[in-house]
Amino acid sequence: MSKTQATGKSISRVPRCTVVIVRDGKQVVPEIGKAFEFTAQEVADIEKSSVKALYPVEGASSGALTSVADGRSVSTDSEI
């Protein structure tokens, strides 16, 4: 079980560049430009390394397409 699943706390962010996180001892590489559920610690660690690596997602739970802070629309549905 990942930290996100274990704690139930997650933060939706959209990666602007390649980021690698480790969950359950395995590397996970979220797709660039698509919303991904990070833990608060993952976001803090990534932003410590590169402040502009992640975009915040506005209204991530409201539908398949959401806008990010710079006004672009991105898919939150992994099948699109």
Task: Walk me through the structure.
The chain contains 2 helices and 7 strands, in the order H-E-E-E-E-H-E-E-E. The strands form 2 sheets. A 5-stranded antiparallel β-sheet has the order 4-1-5-6-7. The protein has a two-stranded antiparallel sheet with strand order 2-3. The chain is α+β, with helices and mostly antiparallel strands. Mean pLDDT is 76; it is low at 1-5, 60-67 and 76-80. The protein is globular. It has one domain (3-75).
Outline of this structure?
The chain has two helices and seven strands, in the order αββββαβββ. It has 80 residues and is α+β, with helices and mostly antiparallel strands.
Residue fraction in strands: 25-35%
Mind telling me the C-alpha Rg? Answer: 12 Å
How many independent structural domains? 1
Task: State the oligomer.
Answer: single chain
The string of secondary-structure elements, in order, is HEEEEHEEE
Number of strands: 7
Mean of residue pLDDT values: 76
Secondary-structure content class = alpha+beta
Strand order of the largest sheet: 4-1-5-6-7
Q: How much helix, percentage-wise, in residues?
A: 10-25%
The N- to C-terminal Cα distance equals: 26 Å
Q: Give the low-confidence spans.
A: 1-5, 60-67, 76-80
Please give the count of helices.
2
User: So what's the overall shape?
Assistant: globular
Biggest beta sheet attributes: 5 strands, antiparallel
